[in-house]
Amino acid sequence: MTDDTQDHGPSGQRAAAEQEKWKAKGVALRAFFYIAGTHLFAAFVMLLFYLGQHAEK
Q: Of residues 2 and 27, which shows the higher confidence score?
């Protein structure tokens, strides 16, 4: 049997390297959105505390 998913030629190595670059970009993009989302959520919570502190009681 042959394994058609593994091409050890130059074009196969290039395709594998390109696929790894896409994976790395995906991880970086996902990390950016998670970090940005966490900061936005934290800012919203801080805004709620600020507004609650300055509300008329």
A: 27
